[in-house]
Hints:
This protein is mainly alpha-helical. It contains 20 helices and twelve strands.
Amino acid sequence: MSDAVVTRFAPSPTGFLHIGGARTALFNWLYARARGGKFLLRIEDTDRARSTPEATEAILKGLSWLGLDHDGEVISQFARAERHAEVAQQLLAEGKAYKCFSTPEEIAAFREAAKAEGRSTLFRSPWRDADPASQPDAPYAIRIRAPQEGETVIRDQVQGDVRIRNDQLDDMILLRSDGTPVYMLAVVVDDHDMGVTHVIRGDDHLNNAARQMMIYQAMGWQVPVWAHIPLIHGPDGKKLSKRHGALGAQEYQAMGYPAAGMRNYLARLGWSHGDDEFFTDDQAKAWFDLDGIGKSPARFDVKKLENLCGQHMAISDDAALRQEIQAYLDAAGRPALSDQQAADLERAMFCLKDRARTFPELLEKAHFVLTSRPVEADEKAKKALDSVSNGILNELTPHLRNASWTRDDLEAVLNGFAEAQGTKFGKLAGPLRAVLAGRAVTPSVFDMMLVLGQDEVLARLTDAA
């Protein structure tokens, strides 16, 4: 086996990309990318009744939004069913598996009786050591011969050594009586054939590892490195569910969270690097390792997410933010910005991106540059406009006609004008915000004037008068 790291993300296409799945994908992506390895994607679509092309599309879109690129083609598990069955037949031929003729009804009856008598409901097939001559001409499942003594040790990079007594393991079915492979077999065969070296997944799969190891060992294949990560809980400490709010990665895109902030936050959910909260992708790749993953569930905290998103927006490239905002508007079903609006937004970014945590917040602050004349003042802004303030703004207009339109000059003109009126600039700011933006909360008046330019500012003042 080569030394190259190969990880994988293997979601079932039965719905959106869950936020927990997104974090699993991120951990796999970071681990592979940091080590020059491969990050593969497999869609576990063997449940034909619940798997849909729409769900597959939603998962791919969610990964794409998060910037988690995968190597090679997307693998369909269902498409590999023949290969899975071939492995079951090989184990049968080698005597490491056997034909079981017990019917579902017989197994159910055994379990009910065992339950009623307080015995173990672990089914031991009577066909394990039966004479082949006694086998009926009837449908059969293929079961693996599980070890019956000793213990299986899962050497897990997160959970430590987990020991399971072999007398707790049943002879797992590999191939059902209708010839279809079970999920447990499919996962192992796919991971082996794809060359997966590290299986990083939720700790709800921990017990599966013991059963999957039986197949690796029976086939003489190298067992991958296991890393079972704790689940994500809501702020109340219960498993993350609908009552905690949004669950799908794309819902967060549609709510206007930047992808870089989401990556940073998801990386910090259950993994840590010292006390570092805010970090870039390059830092995350350099630092990420399995020993930084905690054993207990992480709690999802929207305030922390927003805080990190704000920090990432502040350091983002303006043109990249403009692109991501257009993608957000599309995801949220909101009208796109015109080319002119997008260009104006990018010009204004210097006075917008430091004070917003989400794209809706940023766009609200950008209202002054995205709106067109005549500017409609909202209820709060109207309160700053009365006959007195309008009269004062009228007097201000000629002073602005002669200003050289640099920040220093504008500050000097406005402060000088306020002084001549026997007031402070703060008293002018409210009416100016109302006239320039139609809002009471905006970027600084000077920043807005610089972005809008002299002609537009004078035109808005004239409109108000």
